[in-house]
Specification:
Layout (H helix, E strand, L loop, with lengths): L7 H7 L16 H14 L13 H13 L2 H15 L46 H30 L1
Helix pairs in contact: 2-3, 2-5, 4-5
Length: about 160
């Protein structure tokens, strides 16, 4: 299992919501492997053709992502996982919005106020998302994929509008 791949717990929560093959096109490649490939691309921004071989053929990963983007599978997955997390009480829906605007000088943006943290030693490894509840990591990753799908759809709509 590579860095950023679905954990066993995340996979078990996600698996019941995934579509099944209709049988007309043969057997589908393992959903987990394909989703790991999609998450890798979303996280790193690599080209589809540059996906590592451990995710299977790049075209399979691309086509599944394209198909699930077009038919709304990613949106449904996000809604179902959010609903399950909400039912388990793992989501706090309280929201605070402040509309105060404070303008800063352009040179004041992003200045460091304290020294950067000390780098960890090479032997010390920290687990990703260690302090998060198990749902938060999966939800964050699904939100990234859904956002990419929305961006992709917006770019496609813009290119169609400008080409006519």
């Amino acid at each position: 299992m590579g860095r950023g791949d679905l954990t066993d717990a995340e996979w078990e929560r996600l698996r019941p919501f995934l579509p099944v093959s209709n049988g007309r096109c043969g057997r589908w490649r393992d959903h987990r492997q394909v989703i790991d490939g999609i998450l890798h691309r979303v996280r790193t921004g690599v080209q589809w053709r540059d996906l590592p071989e451990r995710f299977g053929p790049w075209k399979t990963v691309y086509e599944r992502h394209r198909l699930w983007s077009a038919d709304g599978t990613w949106e449904r997955l996000l809604q179902q996982v959010q609903a399950a997390a909400d039912a388990a009480g793992d989501i706090d829906w309280d929201l605070a919005v402040d509309s105060t605007i404070v303008r800063a000088h352009q040179h004041a943006a992003g200045a460091r106020t304290d020294p950067p943290p000390a780098a960890a030693s090479k032997g010390a490894e920290t687990a990703e998302h260690q302090d998060e509840p198990p749902w938060q990591s999966l939800l964050a990753r699904l939100v990234e994929v859904v956002q990419e799908v929305r961006d992709w759809a917006a770019r496609a709509a813009d290119s169609r509008a400008s080409s006519t």
